[in-house]
Specification:
Low-confidence stretches: 267-284, 459-478
Largest sheet: 10 strands, mixed
Distance between the termini: 26 Å
Mean pLDDT: 91
Number of strands: 33
Length: about 950
């Protein structure tokens, strides 16, 4: 064989400057800077002006600290959805916001004070608030840049902040709507209270952790029992894991239908507790009353046998009276302790008798109040007993394990009084903690402001200008706030659907909303309370002056106000108490729909979507629902999406102490934001999701393959001109099949993004992302591109098949670059600018691709599904020959197949990329090296090639032309 010429220069290889290596960490900031310089967000608003609007209302994060993975996941998901709606042609604004008030920021300022050994109470309140404002401002700026680095597109020039004066004025206005409609009251109820932070907490500010507590059994001597006189002198035994509530006990509760046993546990000798501690028991105190079903548990705590002497029914305890173990102290402790019937008493644990402290439990409060027993406010805000309290006055704190432990002063005093039957520090259970300070909380009765859940709303819902809002859209369930909210839940789309049950159950069972906090940094409850009647002032003119003052100076307008001027000439300030409590921050954020959605897009406008983590069913979702239902009679949103939490690679909660925190800032600095965005979009975020090195490696690999798909298309289309395009009718069957697959993909993607499609998969972007990646990898790279690379490289530029292929490549390019733009906005921009460079244009101005769904062809689908399956089987049969180096490429294989395929109009050898195929010969698939020679230009083995390296007929014609 003579030396053959090198035909490499005659092959039409793809040409592109688009690099295989992404270098996202370096490129993305430059792309983001370009977007900012061209005002991408502002120009997009101009282009979409007048279109159907889609409003995703941003739930405000707290302005404290760098963003974490939860922030990144949440913001990226929101951005993907907003961009996808814009891609549909809608006007989809995004106004980012921040929650700037409340404990998270106060706590940080107080930490700085503690480092400097300063006392917050000695700092002027106005100065403290100014420092809180400055701190929030600082972190808003920091987080803003971090969110922008994630590729989140929004109105960063004008975000909403709950501490802006206009926002604070609107929040006060929303509060005054509740006041004017009679939906506020001040009362003393047990609320969740943090002794460390010295304030009431909302349920959403509480998290539960497993702890080990002290459990005690305490004997209360029965003094009267009119329906069971034999009980007089016996002891009712209670069990509790909160020993600190015994000094505030006022009654005992029993279950009317429960059977109780009277028995003797000790015979006068020293009883020995489980921990070897001797306990002297007086003979005449040897009879005890406990629920019969709990005898076994009672015996286990004592390691003794309980000898039953008789039984009674709980109802026989009606009218019985006991005395407090510390009755010898006199005063409060000498008062009789009635035994009261309680329907909440069970035999799940304890003794079947429950000690009642109305200051420190909801059931306790309700039962005692119904029987004329009122709170005594013995425990102060810092967790210590009042200095004048007869027992343990000035001591505490009640959350101190040593103070409440079996060797602490409470148990010691009860032991000396002969009333402590058992005490151990080994009871394991779940207990509420403040999610900020991580300290245990207590239930504590304090005067607070509440929004009632079950008070009928009379008339309309007044606004602060004295007008009346329209009748609520849906009022079928009734006029109370709870009923309106439950009805609104049923008329809201919840994604995933199962989250409906979660929000419904929370609203069904929640107590009245405690909206007051005893802190400094927040929006004040701007009310005047009459000193004699206790009623708050309701006067639209006064309220209007309050709101105007807030617009000018924010919350400080109240704390430093000339209150007589605000009251006006019709009222005397001396007759009124000025309320200085601040609002629950959940009321702040729950009101954001009023000054963001309605404030920017018109009164009555509702958000199309709220998106937050699953914890917000008891947080922002619920506070927004209640606020809007109380003032507007409807939910502020049409749909709500709930996502899970980001866990580490092994499924554990991220914690600095565990050293398993995955930092999104580090990922962006090393790999780029688009890799993080691929991870978010690929996860089943309706549940908790994992992220770690292996997970991110998978995201990087998926991204790399997709990037190479675009690189190939850019190269293949480098000199493409629209004049080259051919019509659908002129296309070969393979191209028409790929258009069919594109139309299928388009429908699948639309089902995820377009609410009008009414799909069960709406907003399930893991399906969206997986469908794109699968199409790019399986349909394009591994199948279509593989088959047509010979056509692209070697056919004449004017060849109809090559023109059809490039026509389809152009269609695919325009579709895919649009589809991926919401997921990987930086890369999509890079791809678009590589083909269509422009200083003024952007891929994000584009709209959903025009895909003709008449391309759907079920006959082609069935035919090519079978051909693709057989192609895979042929490749599998060839692979052993490649491994053994019998052949180097599938092009060198001859294949015989026993099966006859529906290959009319199709060259199956071309599809399988082999030298030749014979069908209907023998059984199964047989592979052997081809005896034909290889063309020196296209490398195909063909019968007309006389020797390796010479040209086939096609290549010869192309070169001659």
């Amino acid at each position: 064989m003579t030396d053959q010429p090198d035909y490499k220069s005659t092959v039409f290889l793809p040409v592109t400057d688009f690099p295989m290596k992404a270098g996202l960490a370096q490129k993305e900031p430059a792309i983001a800077a370009r977007w900012a310089a061209m005002d991408l967000y502002g120009k997009l608003r101009e282009k979409r002006a007048g279109r159907e609007r889609f409003i995703l209302h941003d739930g405000p994060p707290y302005a404290n600290g760098d963003i974490h993975m939860g922030h990144a996941m949440n913001k990226v998901l929101k951005d993907i959805i907003v961009r996808s709606q814009s891609l549909l042609g809608k006007d989809a604004p995004y106004v980012p916001g921040w929650d700037c008030h409340g404990l998270p920021i106060e706590w940080k300022i107080e930490e700085e004070y503690r480092k400097k050994k300063l006392n917050k109470d000695e700092v002027p309140a106005s100065e403290f608030r100014a420092q809180c404002r400055a701190y929030a401002d600082k972190w808003v700026d920091v987080q803003k840049e971090q969110f922008k680095r994630l590729g989140v597109m929004g109105d960063w020039a004008d975000p909403y902040l709950t501490m802006k004066f206009d926002a604070e004025a609107t929040i006060v206005g929303e509060l005054l709507k509740f006041a004017e409609s009679g939906q506020l009251y001040r009362g003393a109820k047990p609320v969740m209270w943090s002794p460390v932070e010295k304030t009431a907490l909302a349920e959403a500010e509480v998290e539960y952790e497993d702890i080990t507590s002290t459990q005690i059994d305490v004997a209360f001597e029965i003094m009267e029992a009119p329906n069971a006189p034999e009980l007089v002198g016996a002891h009712a035994v209670i069990w509790t894991t909160t020993p600190w509530t015994i000094p505030v006990n006022q009654a005992l509760a029993y279950g009317p239908e429960i059977e109780y046993s009277i028995g003797k546990l000790f015979e006068g000798e020293a009883a020995v507790l489980r921990h070897g501690e001797p306990m002297p028991i007086i003979k005449e105190r040897g009879f005890y009353l406990i629920a019969t079903p709990l005898i076994a548990a009672f015996e286990e705590r004592f390691d003794r046998t309980f000898h039953v002497q008789g039984t009674i029914k709980g109802s026989q305890l009606a009218g019985a009276v006991a005395r407090h173990p510390m009755h010898a102290l006199g005063g409060f402790f000498a008062k009789p302790r009635p035994l009261l019937a309680g329907d909440f008493v069970t035999t799940d644990a304890g003794t079947g008798l429950v000690h009642m402290a109305p200051d420190h439990g909801e059931d306790d409060f309700a039962l005692c109040k119904a029987n004329g027993l009122n709170p005594v406010f013995a425990v102060e805000g810092d967790g210590k007993y009042r200095a004048d309290w007869l027992w343990l006055g000035g001591q505490g704190s009640v959350i101190n394990p040593k103070f409440v432990g079996k060797d602490g002063p409470i148990c010691t005093d009860l032991r000396e009084a002969g009333a402590l039957l058992a005490a151990s520090d080994d009871f394991k259970h779940s207990y509420p903690h403040s999610w900020r300070s991580k300290a245990k909380i207590i239930f504590r009765c304090t005067p607070q402001w509440f929004i009632p859940m079950d008070k009928p709303q009379e008339g309309g819902i007044a606004d602060v200008d004295g007008g009346v809002m329209p009748t609520p859209i849906v009022t079928g369930n009734g006029p109370t706030l709870r009923e309106i909210a439950l009805d609104a839940i049923e008329h809201t789309r919840w994604v995933p659907e199962r989250s409906t049950n979660r929000i419904r159950s929370m609203v069904e069972g929640r107590p009245d909303w405690v909206i007051s906090r005893q802190r400094a940094w927040g929006v004040p409850i701007a009310l005047y309370v009459h000193r004699k009647t206790g009623d708050y002032l309701v006067d639209p003119a006064v309220n209007a002056r309050i709101i105007e003052a807030f617009k000018g100076a924010g919350a400080d307008a109240w704390f430093g106000a000339d209150h007589q001027a605000l009251l006006g000439p019709d009222y005397d300030l001396n007759d009124y108490e000025v309320v200085n409590d601040i609002l629950d921050v959940w009321f702040d954020s729950g009101s954001t729909h009023s000054f963001v959605v309605e404030g920017r897009y018109g009164e009555g406008t509702r958000a199309d979507l709220y998106i937050e983590g699953s914890d917000q069913h008891r947080g922002w979702f619920q506070s927004s629902l209640l606020e809007s239902c109380g003032t507007r009679g409807q939910a502020p949103y049409k749909a709500v999406l709930t996502h899970g939490f980001a866990l580490d690679g092994s499924g554990k909660k991220m914690s600095k102490s565990l050293g398993n925190v995955v930092d999104p800032l580090k990922i962006m600095a090393e790999s780029g934001a688009d890799i993080l965005r691929v991870w978010v979009a690929s996860t089943d975020y309706f549940d908790d999701v994992r992220i770690g090195k292996e997970v991110l490696a998978g995201s990087s690999d998926a991204y790399r393959k997709l990037r190479n798909t675009f690189r190939y298309m850019l190269g293949a289309l480098s000199d493409y001109d629209e004049s080259e395009a051919v019509s659908y009718a002129e296309m070969p069957e393979l191209e028409r099949y790929m258009l069919h697959r594109l139309a299928q993909l388009d429908a699948e993607l639309r089902a995820v993004v377009d609410k009008a499609a009414k799909s069960e998969n709406w907003l399930e972007f893991s399906r969206y992302t997986r469908a794109i990646f699968d199409f790019a990898n399986s349909d394009l790279s591994a199948f279509f591109f593989d088959i047509r690379k010979d056509c692209l490289y070697c056919d004449a530029k004017s060849d109809p098949k090559r023109r059809a292929y490039r026509t389809l490549l152009d269609t695919l390019f325009h579709a895919l670059v649009r589809y991926v733009a919401p997921i990987i906005p930086f890369t999509a921009e890079e791809v678009w600018q590589s083909r269509f460079p422009s200083d003024e244009d952007s891929v994000h101005f584009l709209e959903w691709p025009e895909v003709d769904h008449r391309w759907i062809d079920s006959h082609l689908n069935d035919k090519w599904a079978e051909l693709r399956d057989q192609r895979e089987q042929v490749n599998e049969a060839i692979e052993p020959f490649r491994r053994e180096k019998v052949i180097r490429s599938s092009l060198e294989a001859d294949v015989t197949m026993g099966e006859l395929l529906p290959s009319d109009g199709v060259n199956f050898a071309e599809i399988a990329i082999v030298a030749r195929i014979e069908m209907g010969v023998g059984d199964g698939i047989i592979v052997k090296p081809s005896e034909w020679h290889k063309c020196g230009r296209c490398w195909r083995l063909l019968p007309e090639v006389e020797e390796d390296g010479t040209l086939c007929n096609r290549c010869d014609e192309v070169l001659k032309a």
